[in-house]
Amino acid sequence: LDGLLLFGSLLVWLGFLLRESRGIERTEAHDAAKVSTARRDRIRSLAYIVAGLLMLVVGARWLVDGAVSVASALGLSDLVIGLTVVAIGTSLPELATSIIATVRGERDIAVGNIVGSNVFNLLAVLGLSALIAGEVPVAQGALTFDLPVMAAVAVACLPIFFTGYRIARWEGVLFLGYGVGYTVYLLTTAISHPTVPAFAEALAAVVVPLTVITLLLFVTREVRRTRRVPASG
Hints:
This protein is an all-alpha fold. The chain has helices spanning 2-22, 28-36, 39-73, 78-103, 107-133, 140-162, 169-190, 196-232. The chain is 86% helix and 0% strand. Helix 1 packs antiparallel against helix 5 and helix 6 runs parallel beside helix 8. The protein is globular and about 65 Å long. The model has no long low-confidence stretch (mean pLDDT 77).
């Protein structure tokens, strides 16, 4: 039932996107480029897309299988393997796609790739897995730590997206640093390293509060700036 609810939510979301996209006017440059594209070019581009998807699937499978074998040999748990090795391996194609799209100026594709991937992972992957397998067990550690971290990161994205409607370089460095810190915490916890308590206290007492304060200051400044713009105009 939970899987059906998740997958049904995905269908509703896709329907909403399709409905909204019909009202968006395409730019003249896009229309002109689309008209001038020959049929042979379109077929070739479609072949590139299909070939790229196939290579992404094969490459991701090789990477994940090899990494899981190494992680298993080191004695890491399935949850840690999934949260680190498998997650990083399956995210590499998204990373490459977003970087290339950003460099080429296709910023909407870069952002949509990440947001859409997360939505599909939560609604389609979990939903279909539950529908097919009957149930998907969730580890207690994921409920008490990893899922709250995921929710907190998603909430932290809102003020970052809001400030100037762009992600600045320092904000990217901030998120990357958190990703590294989260991975280090998982690995040190898995091997019961003695520095785990001190590392957790540093994150909870210093890093997280400073980040929250910084984000609140930037949001406050952005709200004041947007309020002054109509008055000055």
